[in-house]
């Protein structure tokens, strides 16, 4: 009996030493925590918490949305009515990396005309959207070349502007800057470059990323006040990123057409990536359309801006046929008003938004910039989430 007991004990010990579960644990040690910050290095000097994979056993498969491109998104805001501005921020803020406050208007002596921005600034921060200060040479209803020229050529005014920008950003909590100087004299191109060479490093030294807004060009030969002074290659070197204003082909004073037709946008992006690193390029997109009275006559009644949701709802209520232009990738419809006047409405919908998202993916751009928040287009935001992971700082 004693001999049989000893044999039983020996068998138990032998089996314990060959436990396959123990060997498996030693061969497959507990996985370490992984952070996507290392896999996706930030190009803008801001801290991001990143995402940590769960530290537990299992397949450790990434979520399905990990295959979506990670981009930055910008929404420009005109906070004319602070209460409405807060509503606009709350509607879109969670889908935006930056909210650009348009605009602090530059004066010839370097002073700034401020915005009533305190309340919407707080809303932007609650939505974890980076508040971006936008400075412009805008006055009296248009961009002013004389203001830009004075800032470019007067060292005292230029330095005063730098000091004012830094002061406002620190006082109000802005964390990024956008320089949107437009309608500049073509001969001032080198003067603008020289201004940026002095201005941008001083802002970046304070820790703020700096971007510039660029008119949509398809070659460097495009001249005139809206295009000639914008040097794509130089902006691509001096700025952290650029925003291509790829919209307003169809505009309030022009003939009826898509606001952002894909063939024209593609030409601009083709040129831009030849001069600027693609990871620095934000492609612009409209959140609106226009309603033209027909027949169009130059100098006639201006087209009325309409939101995509407003246009689509109107068409459905009136049982109007919405058509889609496959070349321009944009929807439109006709209607007759109560006075018997015929109209055409070009606008945006989910299909036209997807066409723009496809371009961003195709060219592997940094992201998308929207003009302008406050236009009702809810389908855009859900579709943006379906296509991309939006970077938050």
UniProtKB/TrEMBL annotation:
Coiled coil: none
The organism's place on the tree of life at top rank: Bacteria
Keywords: Glycosidase, Hydrolase
Residue ranges annotated for the GH18 domain, each copy included: 71-393
Database matches in PROSITE patterns: GH18_2 (PS51910), PROKAR_LIPOPROTEIN (PS51257)
Record's compositionally biased regions (Basic and acidic residues): 48-60
SUPFAM superfamilies for the chain: (Trans)glycosidases
InterPro entries per record: CFLE_GH18, Chitinase_II/V-like_cat, Chitinase_insertion_sf, GH, Glyco_hydro18_cat
Disordered: region residues: 22-67
Family matches, as PANTHER family: CHITINASE DOMAIN-CONTAINING PROTEIN 1 (PTHR46066:SF2), CHITINASE DOMAIN-CONTAINING PROTEIN 1 FAMILY MEMBER (PTHR46066)
Protein name as catalogued: Spore gernimation protein
Upper taxonomic lineage: Bacteria, Bacillati, Bacillota, Bacilli, Bacillales
């Amino acid at each position: 009996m004693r001999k049989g007991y000893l044999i039983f004990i020996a068998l138990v010990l032998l089996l314990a030493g060959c436990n396959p579960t123990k060997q498996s644990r030693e061969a497959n040690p507990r996985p370490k925590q992984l952070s996507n910050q290392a896999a996706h290095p930030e190009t803008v000097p801001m801290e991001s918490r990143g995402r940590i994979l769960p530290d537990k056993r299992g397949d450790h498969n990434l979520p399905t949305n990990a295959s979506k491109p990670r981009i930055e998104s910008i929404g420009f805001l005109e906070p004319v009515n602070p209460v409405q501005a807060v509503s606009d921020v709350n509607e879109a803020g969670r889908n935006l990396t930056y909210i650009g406050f348009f605009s602090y208007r530059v004066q010839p002596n370097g002073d700034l005309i401020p915005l009533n921005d305190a309340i919407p600034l707080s809303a932007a921060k609650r939505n974890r959207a980076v508040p971006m200060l936008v400075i412009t040479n805008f006055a009296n209803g248009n961009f002013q070349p004389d203001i830009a020229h004075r800032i470019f050529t007067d060292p005292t005014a230029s330095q005063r502007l730098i000091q004012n920008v830094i002061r406002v950003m620190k006082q109000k909590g802005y964390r990024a800057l956008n320089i949107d100087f437009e309608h500049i004299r073509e001969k001032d191109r080198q003067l603008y470059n020289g201004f940026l060479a002095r201005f941008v490093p001083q802002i970046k030294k304070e820790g703020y990323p700096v971007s510039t807004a660029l008119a949509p060009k398809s070659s460097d030969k495009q001249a005139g006040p809206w295009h000639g002074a914008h040097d794509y290659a130089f902006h691509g070197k001096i700025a952290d990123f650029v925003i291509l204003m790829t919209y307003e082909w169809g505009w309030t004073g022009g003939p009826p057409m898509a606001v952002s037709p894909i063939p024209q946008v593609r030409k601009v992006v083709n040129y831009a990536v030849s001069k600027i690193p693609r990871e620095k390029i934000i492609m612009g997109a409209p959140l609106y359309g226009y309603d033209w009275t027909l027949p169009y006559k130059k100098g006639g009644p201006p087209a009325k801006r309409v939101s995509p949701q407003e246009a689509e709802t109107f068409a459905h209520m009136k049982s109007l046929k919405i058509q889609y232009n496959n070349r321009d990738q944009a929807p439109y419809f006709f209607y007759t008003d109560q006075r018997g006047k015929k109209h055409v409405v070009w606008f945006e919908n989910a299909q036209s938004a997807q066409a723009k998202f496809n371009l961003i993916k195709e060219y592997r751009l940094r992201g998308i910039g929207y003009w302008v928040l406050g236009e009702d287009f809810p389908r855009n935001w859900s579709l943006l989430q379906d296509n991309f992971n939006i970077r938050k700082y």
